[in-house]
From TrEMBL:
It catalyses: [protein]-peptidylproline (omega=180) = [protein]-peptidylproline (omega=0). Keywords: Calcium, Endoplasmic reticulum, Glycoprotein, Isomerase, Metal-binding, Repeat, Rotamase, Signal. Its EC number is 5.2.1.8. This is peptidylprolyl isomerase. InterPro entries: EF-hand-dom_pair, EF_Hand_1_Ca_BS, EF_hand_dom, FKBP-like_isomerase, PPIase_dom_sf, PPIase_FKBP_dom. The gene is Fkbp10. The lineage of its organism: Eukaryota, Metazoa, Chordata, Craniata, Vertebrata. Gene3D superfamilies: 3.10.50.40, EF-hand (1.10.238.10).
Length: 565
């Protein structure tokens, strides 16, 4: 019987041209009516596949449809679990390929059919679209799409990552995207919070790297799928952009970009630092900059006034140093972030330029650049000095210079006419001596600064003492070198008319100075000093001094003490 059946089949095929009827089909007829440009993968024997189909008879009557059931069909191809015609018709099919299959009865349900559904000896017509192909031996497929040039660290297990992603099924159907939510997906890697394939697929990534990760279902949501968006046994394709990552054990990471050659002093806890900075996220997004405000950020370090990472990151800086400080979120703004510029769990990068720093305990720093030989007379409190100076900030910004004026600066030391730091820096100097003074702000212009001087700035003065004159004690305009004349009024009243007008007074005082009996408060305008003296003595301001009005300052002070007692 077997022999004759073979013969029939052969006859059918051989006799076809003569009879004009093609006779029964020998094999499946395959019409590949849509082939995608890129074939991601072809179905091989033993592969697990997911597909949609419509099944009809020759007359177009539908007998079955996965679309009507609202679920794709999943199964293994080529191992006899499907009707033979289907097993053969799906071989070599690409993802997203569409085929028309014509399955003859002997490769379908044969002469028995399926009761109430498929009659005996029915030829079946299928319209199939292939959606997914995988194999239990599959590995994760990782493709690097782009990578930053600099990458000094990659993701490891237990790191915390922030990434953007688009998720699609293998046929390109999107199921989820972080971009549509407007924020990154943030999670730990390798601790079981992610599907296995993602846990593995993120390892070794750099911040800023883009990857495509194809995950077979057994490393994704497997037989259960996920909600309505991920069918059972679906391969997943993630396009991932790693925004940043850190490890909870991370400390602050420093890069010393530019350290000045001479660094006499490094900042420590309790120092007050003025610095410029640009603050960026790991992907380069600028979130803040002191340059845009055109003023430095000024703060104590190590005291908790700034985020802990910055408190640590500024330790040991030199004046003028450029330093990059990379701060993990647990030493910055944590899970909540800050404002709308710093996302939760973000790593922050500060590029810092230190302008200056000081300590509230700092004295004036004095460096003698030149001291003439045989220097035995030096400046003291109340002396009148003439000096030249250049004043600048520590970054070299020039502020003021006496050389911009015709003559040197003049001042009485200790008369509160110049900042304290400059006053003390001018003491104990010889004429001709040159010094460099470093003046901290508490001995300079303080927190508020002054015109042209930023708040809390450390100042650098180059000073040269031109000349000095011995001064008089505070409150005096003239002092006697010895005892004053016993009958002072009589001696002062040169024409003996019982009153002393301004001219007479002036002549008398100038004579005392010329004869070395006394000295005026030093000034660039001695006439004014004498006029002030006269005005002090002419108590009723009538232009002349009477015997009752004339009093020595020492006597006046005695009277005052007496009154107070």
């Amino acid at each position: 019987a077997a022999g004759s059946r073979c013969l029939l089949l052969l006859l059918g095929v051989l006799g076809a041209p003569a009879l004009g009827d093609p006779g029964p089909l020998e094999d499946v007829v395959i019409d590949r009516y849509y082939i995608p440009k890129i074939c991601l993968r072809e179905a091989q024997m033993g592969d697990f596949i997911r597909y949609h189909y419509n099944g009809t008879f020759k007359d177009g009557k539908k007998f079955d449809s996965s679309y009507d059931r609202g679920a794709t069909v999943a199964g293994v191809v080529g191992v006899g679990r499907l009707i033979t015609g289907m097993d053969r018709g799906l071989q070599g099919m690409c993802v997203n390929e569409r085929r028309h299959l014509i399955v003859p009865p002997h490769l379908g349900y044969g002469s028995i059919g399926v009761a109430g559904l498929i009659p005996p000896d029915a030829t079946l017509y299928f319209d199939v679209v292939m959606l997914d192909i995988w194999n239990k031996n599959d590995k994760l497929q990782i493709t690097t799409l782009s990578k930053p040039e600099r990458c000094n660290r990659t993701v490891e297990n237990s790191d915390f990552v922030r990434y953007h992603y688009n998720g699609t099924l293998l046929d390109g159907t999107p199921f989820d995207s972080s971009y549509s939510k407007g924020s990154t997906y943030d999670t730990y890697v390798g601790t079981g919070w992610l599907i296995k394939g993602m846990d593995q697929g993120l390892l070794g990534m750099c911040a800023g790297e883009k990857r495509s990760i194809i995950i077979p279902p057994f490393l994704a949501y497997g037989e259960k799928g996920y909600g309505t968006v991920i069918p059972p046994q679906a391969s997943l394709v993630f396009s991932v952009l790693l925004v940043d990552f850190h490890n909870p054990k991370d400390g602050v990471f420093l890069e010393h970009l530019e350290v000045p050659e001479s660094c006499k002093r490094r900042a420590v806890t309790g120092d007050f630092v003025r610095y410029h900075y640009n603050g960026t996220l790991m992907d380069g997004t600028l979130f803040d900059s002191s340059y845009s405000r055109n003023q430095t950020y000024n703060t104590y370090i190590g005291k908790g006034y700034i985020i802990p990472g910055m408190d640590q990151g500024l330790q040991g800086v030199c004046m003028g140093e450029h330093r990059r400080v990379i701060i993990p979120p647990h030493l910055a703004y944590g899970e909540n972030g800050a404002g709308d510029k710093i996302p939760g769990s973000a790593v922050l990068i500060f590029d810092v330029h230190v302008i200056d720093f000081h300590n509230p305990e700092d004295p004036v720093e004095i460096e003698t650049v030149f001291r003439p030989e045989g220097c035995n007379v030096t400046t003291r409190d109340r002396d009148f000095v003439r000096y030249h100076y250049n004043c600048s900030l520590l970054d070299g910004t020039r502020l003021f210079s006496s050389h911009d004026y015709e003559k040197p600066q003049e001042v009485t030391l200790g008369a509160n006419k110049v900042i304290e730091g400059l006053n003390s820096g001018l003491l104990d100097m010889c004429a001709g001596e040159r010094r460099v003074l470093i003046v901290p702000p508490h001995l300079g212009h303080g927190e508020s600064g002054a015109r042209g001087v930023p708040g809390s700035a450390v100042l650098r003065f180059e000073v040269e003492l031109i000349s000095m004159e011995e001064g008089v004690p505070e409150g005096y305009l003239f002092i006697w070198h010895g005892e004053p004349p016993a009958s002072l009024y009589e001696e002062m009243d040169l024409n003996k008319d019982g009153e002393i007008p301004a001219e007479e007074f002036s002549t008398f005082i100038k004579t005392q100075v010329a004869e070395g009996k006394g000295r005026l408060m030093p000034s660039s305008d001695p006439e004014k000093v004498i006029a002030d003296m006269f005005r002090n003595q002419d108590r009723n301001q009538d232009g002349k001094i009477t015997p009752e009005e004339l009093k020595l300052k020492s006597d006046e002070d005695q009277e005052k003490i007496h009154e107070e007692l």
